[in-house]
Amino acid sequence: MLDEARITCKLAARGITPDARQRDAIAALVSLAGTQRARQAKAGGASASQGVYCYGLPGRGKSLVVDTAFELANCRKRRLHFHEFLREMNRRLVSEPRGGDRLGSVSRQWLDGVELLCFDEFHVHDIADAFLMGRFLDTAIAQGTRIVLTSNYAPNALLPDPEFHERFLPTIAQIERCFTVIHFDGARDYRFGGEEAEVPRFFAPLDTTSQHALRRIFTHHEGNRTVEPVTLSAAGRPLAARAAGAALLWADFDALCVASRSHLDYLDLAEQWRGLILDNLHTSRLTQAHTLQRLVWLIDIFYDRKRALFVASDQPLAAALSGLEGAHDLSRTLSRLAQMQSRTYHSTLEGGDHAATNDAIGS
After folding, report:
1. What Pfam family is a match, any one (predicted)?
2. What are phi and psi of 21, to 5 degrees?
3. How much is the pTM?
4. What CATH number has the domain spanning 4-184?
5. pLDDT in tens, 120-173
């Protein structure tokens, strides 16, 4: 049985003493996990506490607390990044016969057997995603699925585009009515201030020293595999890479982020390889909004999958990103980059692929 003491103990093992808002979230998660799956169609309406919505600035411990509770919860559960959810739903919609409530039908299929659902980094910036998410939440709540969302956005800040925001207000009202909403407002970003990794992962400038370091990293993980150019597939589209091993991909920034690509490409790469060497990053390219957004997506997805990331750029990446505009959730990217360079970031490249796969249904 899930209880607050077990969650607190697991956090203490990682050196975390929960602050006030984290304790509120733990209590809400324990309460949610203790409720039985409710078939709302029979019960006569949605429960007032069918979910937990944790929001706040990056690095405040939202995912840490939620993931800890999720790991301990004993039920049929699923946790995944919001990008992955959108990909799965759109794939199902393509094959769903036309007519009737296609989105509702696909939502019910997707939710089948899931008692506890966790979306990490929940966000809505696009009106098409907003429509999909609104119908999906309607279905999940009607079926009594317990839902946990983590986000950098307060519910009322979702879909901030003033042209479309009003159309998402019914879903926002539903979240505020059916979820316990907790604002993680602590001052500390837990991802900053950690000890740097023993072996550096980010290199600047773009010189022979950086190139030799990247080659050593590739050779360390891939042995005697030849470093030679290769053309691969990312989400069905060709990608020219410097080298590809069994675990590690080595590619240039222009091919990955300047070229026209989407989050689907990065999801595919994170599924094929446990680490990425992102080479030849000229930070002047980041002033282009589309290029910057692609880098944000790439870092988000590789961080969520606990993939290794090695970067060679003409100047330190964090400094180049600070103060830039043109991409959603850039502050989260800076927070994640800080952790990805620290000793506390343990990637699947280092530990093999035996790391827990939270996106699978399990008990």
Report:
1. AFG1_ATPase
2. -70, -35
3. 0.81
4. 3.40.50.300
5. 889 999 999 999 999 999 999 999 999 999 999 999 999 999 999 999 999 999
